[in-house]
Hints:
By secondary structure, the protein is of the alpha/beta class. It contains 18 helices and ten strands. It has helices at 6-11, 16-47, 54-103, 106-112, 114-153, 158-205, 207-212, 216-269, 274-316, 376-383, 406-412, 427-432, 440-449, 453-458, 476-489, 506-519, 555-561, 563-578; strands at residues 336-345, 351-361, 365-370, 391-396, 399-400, 413-416, 494-498, 524-528, 540-545, 548-553. α5 runs antiparallel to α6 (158-205). It binds adenosine-5'-triphosphate. Pfam families: ABC_membrane, ABC_tran. Residues 337-571 form the ABC transporter domain.
Amino acid sequence: MLLLNKTLLRLARGLWQWILAIAAVSFLTLVGTTALAEIVSQFLGSLFEPQVVLSTVKSAVGAAFLASVFTFLAQLIKGLIEYKTAAKARSTMRKTIFSKVMELDAGGIEKIGPTSAITAAVDAVEQMQAYFSSYLPSLIFSVIAPIYLFFHLKNISLIVAVLLLFVSLILFPLHNVFRGKIEALRKTYWRSLDDMTGYYMDGLRGLTTLKLFDRDREHSRVLGEKADVLNKNINAFMKINFTSFLVTELLIYAAITVSLVICITGMRNGDITIAQALTVLMLSYSYFSAIRQLMSASHSALTAISAAGKVEEILQTDTSRPYNPELPADPEHFDGIRMEHVSYGYEGRSRALQDVSLTIPRGSSVALVGLSGCGKSTAASLLMRFCDPDQGTIFIEGKEYRSVTPQQLRTNIAMVPQQVNLFSGTIRENLLLADPNANDEKLKEALSEAGLGSFLKTLPKGLDSDVGNAGAALSGGQRQKMGIARALLSEAQYMIFDEATSSVDPQSEREIWETIGRLSKTRTLIIISHRMSTIQNANCIYVLEKGVVAQRGSHAELMQQGGLYRELVTRQQAMEVAE
Ligand SMILES: Nc1ncnc2c1ncn2[C@@H]1O[C@H](COP(=O)(O)OP(=O)(O)OP(=O)(O)O)[C@@H](O)[C@H]1O
């Protein structure tokens, strides 16, 4: 009911002093307003007394002026602190989200979805900051203000003070009853809006098809029905909003009217003076301003809470890659990488890999092939330890994968992905990501080994040449070669090429395969490629089918065996001839 949210309260940790400062300055504003109300009421009350003198007028005006200046300054300061709190909240939340997102590995990013990661850091943060700069201070203030005013009014009339306090305390729970209904209707309204917009978009995109089949009038009729449903939902939403407003305002004005009736009766009986009655009239409005402020802030709080849900999903993602040096070593003491009965499935999906065993002897080249979706990239992700097997074990040079620190693993295994990511900056800056201590000679050596030596010589600025936004100033082939150069700089013994030439032109593809051929003399290569002609020299080829190892052997052995491998090779040869 108080709209307190665990995620938001956790994020508010460094912000409490600011939140309390806003509530405190709001309270000072109330103190100023109360003083002003009392000064004005006393002055107006004194006008009815015969002995009014100029000095009374002067001191009343002076006091009213001071109270006004005080209130104005308090309000100004409140605005400034609110602004500061919003800025601080944004910055704190963005830093928390950014540092978590940067901890995610490939599996984690896919699980959340890159779009969610962006909206969490941009939109959600904007929505959540209002919770700290507006809702929480209003909540605190809405508790203090009625109590403060109660103590002010109780000396004039206890019954009025109790009545106003009671009504101000029940307003927020009552408002929440309406709010629950409003939120449910808002969801229905958004759904019908989405439904209508989606149908409208479908119609626009497929207008020619609709006309071809003479279905445009029917489409227009359904669209009209959807527009009616939307209208009905908007009306229901507005009706409940208006009812909520009406009930709240009626209660407030009823409480004020009853208070005035009590004051007038008191005046008649001589228990209450005119000045006191005027004070009640003026302060009764202040009684409800805090709760009104809270009610309007509670709308932002609800938006903030739903945004916090998205952020919580990111913050809760497990980014730990625990390692335990005590895990038992490989009983076979295999010199290389070995997968033993490994199974892995993505959340909510059937197994992507099932009981896969494979060996990658140090110094060899091993290829993984198979139809799209057979699990090749999943095997690469497991080898990079972007994820851990659900069942089975992976060993590297006699050690259990999870007994090696993530840093050690990264220095042993590098990957050249399908799309190499380059950052805006120079060639040097992009290469230093892999080895921050590398000197120019080493960088040039890696570039030349990756097949970029002659290209570098053509650049007037050499290593200081700009690669453009996300590497836009380089060709697709050059970007992939930069990825290879980076992998070389990491000095990893094991290198995974996951469809490293799938997005480059035939000339670059040939050059990259030549480079890979050279690398196979000094490194252990794990090659994933859909081009069967490129992996024929691999020492061992694993053919995956629906997540299972269907065949294994050299090219010659597999061609002799027949089965899926020979089918894939023959099919591709036929396609190449046709091209
Ligand atoms: N992040 C993911 N979430 C859920 N399922 C996934 C995810 N990544 C892959 N899969 C599923 O796992 C299976 C194996 O996918 P994987 O990418 O390993 O295949 P692949 O052989 O590399 O395919 P391709 O040759 O098309 O790249 C597929 O059914 C795929 O839909």
